[in-house]
Structure formats: C-alpha cells, structure tokens
Amino acid sequence: MRLLVIEDETKTGDYLHKGLTEAGFQVDLARNGLDGHHLAMTETFDLVVLDVMLPDVDGWRIVKSLREANQTTPVLFLTARDSVDDRVKGLELGADDYLVKPFAFAELLARVRTLLRRGLPAAAVEHLEIADLVLDLPRRRVTRSGKRINLTNREFSLLELLVRRQGEVLPRSLIASQVWDMNFDSDTNVIDVAIRRLRMKIDEPYHPKLIHTVRGMGYQLDVMSED
Predict the structure, then answer these.
(1) Residue 92, domain CATH
(2) Among 84, 106, 123, residue at a domain's last position
C-alpha cells in the first residue's frame, strides 16, 4: 500500500514517515501543500494523510481540489484545530477521517488501516505492467514476453515494490524496510544479492533491461533508452 503524507512540520513529517514505513507501507512525504497537491493529483496512492494548516496551500483547498477532480483516494486529516466546526468542514469537503494533534501513533495507524480496508475493493489493482513484464498480483505470478518466471515470495515482493515505484531511485534503506521489514545494515549485502538474483530471472534473457543500479543511491526499475 502506498501512502502520501503532506506535513510541513519537520519533526511530525519525519515521525509519520518513519512510523508508517516501519508498519509496512510505502510512504511518500511532501513538506508543503504545493508539492503534496501535485503528487496527489498526478500519482496513485491508496491513502493521503493531510495536515490542514500548511503555509502555501492549506489542506481544505487540497481535498476540495481532489474531490472536484473526482479523485476518490481516502483522505485522513491531521490538525491541531479541534473545534466541531473544523471537523465538520473537513468531512463536508470530502475528507474520510479527522485526527486531532497531538495524537497517539497507535490510533493513527488503526485509522489508516480502517480507511484502507474500507477503500480496498475500489482501489484494488490486479495487474502491474512495464514493457513486456506483467505481474499478476492476486496469483503472485510473473510473466515476461508471455513466459512464466518463477520467483520466491521475497523476490516477488521486491519486484512489486520496484514496479510500483517505476522510475524512482529506491535507496537500500527503503527496500530493506519495505521488503525485509528491517533497518538497513550497511555491512550486509542481502539486498544486492536479491537484486542480482532478480536480474538473472527477469532481465538477463530479455530486452530491454529493466533493473538499473544508480551508484551511491540505490536501484531503479524503468525502460531506459539504449541510444
């Protein structure tokens, strides 16, 4: 599940990003309203966690814009404004839930999971595709050029992460937390070994090559020009 957090308070944003990532979600963090609004309108997310009081474009305007564009992604408002009028306003604009700061992370996580369960049928995606690579998510099967590729459960999860974040350079720390549910240890090569095995199965016999190493940064899955 991919979440977007829009929060301008540095400590709160980092806290949410760390906690939700450790809970097993893919998390994008926008530190202002303009960036958050752009991401929410142009990328696909399963849930948006949105601060109301942002310095450039406030949360009210962002959720109103999303709903006017027929975006049905669930939105959880976070705000220090705790009046009944504010809560009613947020819900009437199209937010799905409203949590007042300060909050317990356990409650936030419970609300996030509830909203995701509620919206799952409409948001469910059964297939992911890039070039001639196809991931059948319900069956956890992979084909390339129509040929079945046998992957371990961990390899499938790694490939799914790369495909869902197509074009993004994913650092080893993010891969470790999302696929292995662990903090990244710079002394281990488990991620590099897993990437190498995945390449042997989905890249070596085929063209174009999809998995790329970005030195000093991480890994990226995309169709690159071979000029």
Answers:
(1) 3.40.50.2300
(2) 123
CB contact at 8 A, 75 and 96: yes
Question: Which positions of the chain have pLDDT values less than 70?
Answer: 82, 119-125, 181-188, 225-227
CB burial of residue 211 (10 Å; 0-12, 13-18, 19+): middle
205 and 156 co-located in one domain: yes
Domain boundary among 74, 100, 123: 123
Q: Where are the beta strands (DSSP E) in the chain?
A: 2-6, 26-30, 47-51, 75-79, 97-100, 127-130, 133-136, 141-144, 147-149, 211-214, 218-221
Q: Note the pLDDT tens digit of each residue in 171-210.
A: 888 788 778 765 555 556 888 999 999 999 999 989 999 9
pTM: 0.54
Answer whether the bond into residue 102 is a cis peptide, omega within 30°: yes
Q: What is the C-alpha separation between 61 and 213, in angstroms, rounded?
A: 39
Which residue from 111, 112, 5 is spatially nearest to 54, judged by alpha carbons? Answer: 5
